[in-house]
Every structure is written in C-alpha cells, then in structure tokens.
Amino acid sequence: MTRSARTVVPSGLPGWIFVPAAVGGLFVVLPLTAMLASVDWSRFVQLVTSESSLAALELSLRTAAASTVLCVLFGVPMAAVLSRSSFRGLHVLRSLALLPLVLPPVVGGIALLYTFGRKGLIGQHLEVAGISIAFTTTAVVLAQTFVALPFLVVSLEGALRTAGRRYEYAAATLGATPTTVFRRVTLPLVLPGLVSGAVLSFARALGEFGATLTFAGSLQGVTRTLPLEIYLQRETDADAAVALSLVLVVVAVVIVVGSRGWASRAVP
C-alpha cells in the first residue's frame, strides 16, 4: 500500500480538510456554549414567562408563520419562472429577486417605509382608503417576508434545476395541461426542497430585526417581536436578554432539525 493510499480517510476527503471544518464548527458552537453557560438558571422560568416576553414570542411565531405563507405563495412561482424560463433580462430578474439577501435589513426597512408608509409610493393611496400599514403587525409580516423570500426562492430554484424536466415532458406528452404538470409532477418532485426553503424562510423571519424596527417600530403586543424584546432587555436586564436568546435558539433548532428529518423521509 502506498503512502498516499494510507493517508486517505474513509470519507474520501483529504485529512487536512477536517481541521478548518472543525475550526468553523467551533466558531459556531463556542458562542452558543458561552451563552448557555451564562444563563441565570435560577430565574430562567421567571425571565422567559414575563408578560412582555410571552407577548413577543407569540407575536414572533404568529408573524413568522404568516410571512412564511406569503413566501410560499410568491416564492414558488418566482422559483419556477427563474428555473424554467428563458428570456432576455432573466439574469436581471434573478438578481433583483435575491437582492434582499445582501441588502442591510435596515435598508430594506427604509425601502418598505417609502413604499407602504403614510407618504409612501403605495401607502399614500392606502391612507386615502383608510388603510394604514406602517407600524402595525401587518408591517412586521411584510418586513419579514421581504428579507425571508429569497431563501425560499434560492432553495426551490436549485431543487427545480436539479430535478430536471424529463418527468414534466413525459406528463405533457400524455396530455396533461401545464397546470396539471406543475401541480401533480413538479411540486411533488421538489417537495423536500420546498420544505427546506420554507423552513429557512421561517427561521429568517423569526430572527428578523433591522427591517422590522425601521418599518414597524417596537410596540409591545403589536410590533415588538422577540428579537426586538431581546434588544430592549439587553439595555436593562442582561440576564433576561440571555434567557430569551436561548429560547429563540431552541425554537430555531427544533424547527430546523424537525424539518430536515421530515424532508429526508420525503425524498423518494
């Protein structure tokens, strides 16, 4: 056996690659461990069950769920167009769809404010009709949708490209309409990717801060989500901020791990 053969690890990867991988893993795990070690466990239940904390958690879960529904309603058609269409300017459309991924959240909040605010491009017309969006719970949902939508589009577009079109072509030759092909063939084929994208969107919406604060403000029970509550508590009670941060981490981990397990079982 040659020396090079002896150095190959069972995974087929070069041995050196595990060193930066381990460092990257520690970079993620150590801060979470440090936060866990700093929790005041004697007051933990009291801190996370205060009226403001429960209201913020309930609002975060409710608005994140609503924004995830919007992400699915808008993101599925967007991903389908980006992956299945071919026309001039498609790359520009893709760049615009993914722009919120690289925009600072506060910039997204300002953009939403100048669109749906009282004097905004659309908001001024809504105000005439008696509809106010800025600094309401609806504003929270719109802000979360704005920053979370690209996560679903990216995940689903990748799944659609990987799946190919042979099954769709086969169904079309058998007489199925485009709508039937999309509903009965395309969506079931990329369901794990859709679930993963929806979960990523939910997790991103759950942790949204900058756009929400800029566009919706911080009104308890109305627009103050859990990240905003953590930020405010950090100024007055660091122990409460750490405890609430742990709750947010646990919720995110449960959602992501559970969804990945479901998605892996859904793979045909």
From TrEMBL:
Keywords (A to Z) from UniProt: Cell membrane, Membrane, Molybdenum, Sulfate transport, Transmembrane, Transmembrane helix, Transport
Pfam families named in the record: BPD_transp_1
Transmembrane segments: 12-39, 59-83, 95-116, 128-156, 240-263
Lipid bilayer topology: Multi-pass membrane protein
Cellular localisation: Cell membrane; Membrane
Residue span, ABC transmembrane type-1 domain: 57-259
InterPro entries assigned: MetI-like, MetI-like_sf, ModB_ABC, NifC_ABC_porter, Sulph_transpt2
Principal location class: membrane
The keyword rRNA processing is assigned to this record: no
PANTHER family: SULFATE TRANSPORT SYSTEM PERMEASE PROTEIN, SULFATE TRANSPORT SYSTEM PERMEASE PROTEIN CYST
Function summary: Part of the binding-protein-dependent transport system for molybdenum; probably responsible for the translocation of the substrate across the membrane.
Family statement drawn from the similarity comment of this UniProt entry: Belongs to the binding-protein-dependent transport system permease family. CysTW subfamily.
SUBUNIT field: The complex is composed of two ATP-binding proteins (CysA), two transmembrane proteins (CysT and CysW) and a solute-binding protein (CysP).
Protein name stated in the entry: Molybdenum transport system permease
Organism: Rhodococcus tibetensis
